[in-house]
Amino acid sequence: MTLEIFLTVLNLDLKMFDQGLLAGLSSFFSWLVMSIVKFVITPSLMTAKGFEPWEILLVTISGAVVGVLLFYHTGKAIFSWWSTLKSKFFSNNKRKAVVTPGRRKFIQYKDKYGFTGLLIVAGLFSVPISALLGAKYFSNRQNTVLYLILAFVAWSCVLTFLSLCVKNGLL
After folding, report:
1. Could you give the dihedral angle defined by the CA atoms of residues 94, 99, 103 and 104, in that order, rounded to the nearest 10 degrees?
2. Which residues contact 38 (CB under 8 A, 6 or more apart)?
3. What's the Cα-to-Cα distance from 153 to each of 35, 38, 94, rounded to whole Å?
4. Is residue 132 a contact partner of residue 71, using CB atoms and an 8 Å limit?
5. pLDDT in tens, 106-142
């Protein structure tokens, strides 16, 4: 009852909750998981389903925040554990790193563009890949998680705007 009064005052249309609270929460969390896994297409799919722009932004930004926090900290713990494991068991067998063309290009990109480059292309990758790359290569930087989240907020706004423009025939 209180929620309905609040929404009436704000004059918000909650398409997500048309079928009831449980179905609405189920829909929200389904889209949230979708925005974590396939961030770049979620705004377009939600626009095509007829969701309001603020609902799209809420879901994609929430998904990005949850995904970055989850994958960054999990990745950081796994990389730390793996490093400790390697130093304990494989310190005697120093193997020379195999340099492949793909690794060479990645290292060149990382050296040339650095953390700023990761933030710029983060939305084109997925949330898990960007967060894991941040945890692996930029965990020593201050505010890495905050900058990743802000990059995804920016990407969410851009992708939502582009999706709405395409839906309305402006692009």
Report:
1. 130
2. 126
3. 12, 15, 42
4. yes
5. 888 888 999 999 999 998 889 999 999 999 999 888 8
User: To 5 degrees, how large is the angle CA 108–CA 112–CA 115?
Assistant: 110
Per-residue DSSP letters for the chain?
-HHHHHHHHHT---GGGTT-HHHHHHHHHHHHHHHHHSTTTHHHHHHHTT--HHHHHHHHHHHHHHHHHHHHHHHHHHHHHHHHHHHHHSSSS-PPPP--HHHHHHHHHHHHHHHHHHHHHTTTS-HHHHHHHHHHHSTTSTTHHHHHHHHHHHHHHHHHHHHHHHHTT--
Q: Please state the φ and ψ torsions of residue 138, each to the nearest 5 degrees.
A: -130, 20
Cα–Cα distance for residue pair 26/12, rounded to 1 Å: 19
Amino acid at 25: L
Nearest to 119 by CA among 150, 140, 91, 97: 150
- Single-letter residue type at 42: T
pTM, 2 dp? 0.80
Q: Could you report the per-residue pLDDT of 60-93, keeping only the tens digit for each? A: 999 999 999 999 999 999 998 988 888 777 766 6
